[in-house]
Description:
Elements: H1 2-14, H2 16-24, H3 28-44, H4 50-75, H5 83-103, E1 106-113, E2 118-120, E3 123-131, E4 140-147, E5 152-155, E6 158-161, E7 168-171, E8 173-175, E9 180-190, E10 196-197, E11 199-204, E12 208-211, E13 214-224, H6 226-229, E14 234-244, E15 251-260, E16 271-272, E17 280-287, E18 292-298, E19 308-309, E20 315-324, H7 327-365, E21 375-377, E22 384-386
Antiparallel strand pairs: 1-20, 2-3, 3-4, 4-5, 6-7, 8-9, 9-20, 10-19, 11-18, 12-13, 13-14, 14-15, 16-17, 17-18, 21-22
Helix pairs in contact: 1-2, 3-4, 4-5, 5-7
Amino acid sequence: MGRRRRRRHSCCSSCPGSCRSSRGRRRPPGSLAVGTGVVILALALGARDLSSLAFLFLAGFAADMNLRAVLRKAKNGKLTGAGGYLAHVGVGIMLAGIVVSGVYTRSQRLTLVRDRPTKVGDKTLTFLRVVPGTATRKQAMEIRVETAAGKVGYAYPKMYVNTKTGQLMANPAIRRSAVLDDYISPQQYDPGQPERVGRDVALRKGTTTNVEGTGFTFREFNADRSAMLRGGKEILVLTDLTITPPDGGRHDVTLRYVYHMDGGEPEAPEIEILGRPGAFMKVEAVSPSDGSVVLRVRGLAKDPRSEFQAATRESLSVEVTKKPLINLVWAGFYVMMAGGLLALVKRAREARRAVFVAEASREKTSAPLPPAGRPVTAPGSSLPTEA
């Protein structure tokens, strides 16, 4: 028994640093408890994905192990040497944030009809209006957000057309908190339309389109600007067509379309389609620049219900997303950068020290030696000696 004690004492006396470092590294039980605690907390909050729970355990374990090393360094006054450990703490925190926000993100797509409250989870969303864009602000959609506690706020997701590329752009409205970020992303905007009876037929100049056995040939435009010359603000556009009903006849007709320059509603009287009793047509839109016209025809279909389209209300389709603990990703990133900065400071100091030692060594080695054959005075003697 005494020999065994002496042997252990001899080992410790011969390598005390090694024994102390091994005792200092006995931290896994505490870190295992931290990792287990993180998993238990995740289970209590509703986490059930096994792979995510495993990653959370590893993240908690690694972060705790490295944090203990950072604290030991700081306690010994060597905080600048803890940069690597601190960076790994940040990696553990980032891993936890990436796992939670990636696996447990929840999204729901819905359509918000204007002025109609819609419940989404514990919140009620109401699409109010379109906020026009200005020279310094993009067009946005105003959405009223009411929480279960009765608190009211407003979200302004942006939806606009890029003037350079002509593409539709959408930027979400984000509400951030310590544990949860809410995103409202616009997907599609429908301005709505009134009730419509009939179908639209697009014609190009010189072409013929057959609709339910009746041919429509667009011959040409004639624009009458005499009203503008008299000081008016409207343009009369005359559209010349040839109608070919199923009986084989040909009927030339002219449709009127009055365009108001002051922004008023266009005027387009409806006329009967010759050769098709009970059928009518009118000009819906004209485009003289590319030589096209859009007709609204009704009464040609065998089933009248196929020509009816109910009115639609203005609406906005959005995607509501909840991302938990996304802030952990940013917190871990900043901690990792702090660790990298500490490591950089340490390396800079070591580099300066190495340069200083190298310069001092160079000065010693470059000291001049006495020439050969000249007498050298020995230390403590006044008599010269032979070099």
